[in-house]
Automatic annotation (TrEMBL):
Pfam families: ASC. The gene is SCNN1B. GO terms for molecular function: sodium channel activity. It is a multi-pass membrane protein. Coiled coil: none annotated. GO terms for cellular component: membrane. Belongs to the amiloride-sensitive sodium channel (TC 1.A.6) family. Keywords: Ion channel, Ion transport, Membrane, Sodium, Sodium channel, Sodium transport, Transmembrane, Transmembrane helix, Transport. It is found in: Membrane. The chain crosses the membrane at residues 52-77. This is Sodium channel non-voltage-gated 1 beta subunit. It comes from Tursiops truncatus. InterPro entries: ENaC (IPR001873). It comes from the Eukaryota.
Length: 85
């Protein structure tokens, strides 16, 4: 257990010395490993065919969510408002 902690702290120290930035690939892998959603986790864990399928499904449903947000925002901004003082 102490060896694991020592290795972790050494890695953290190396990160601090390396600089503030991570590469985009490191950030993507970190997000995919630590997210609660199913798609991104499976994009990095599955075989090549399943990776492609999960990537397409994740992209599709993310775009649907963004489209729905756009519809909601447009509906909200077009709502008639009358103000009287």
């Amino acid at each position: 257990a102490t060896m694991h902690i020592k290795k972790y702290l050494l890695k953290c120290l190396h990160r601090l010395q390396k600089g503030p930035g991570y590469t985009y690939k490191e950030l993507l892998v970190w997000y995919c490993d630590n997210t609660n959603t199913h798609g991104p986790k499976r994009i990095i864990c599955e075989g090549p065919k399943k990776k492609a399928m999960w990537f397409v499904l994740t992209l599709l449903f993310t775009s649907l969510v963004c489209w729905q947000w756009g519809v909601f925002i447009r509906t909200y901004l077009n709502w008639e408002v009358s103000v009287s003082l």
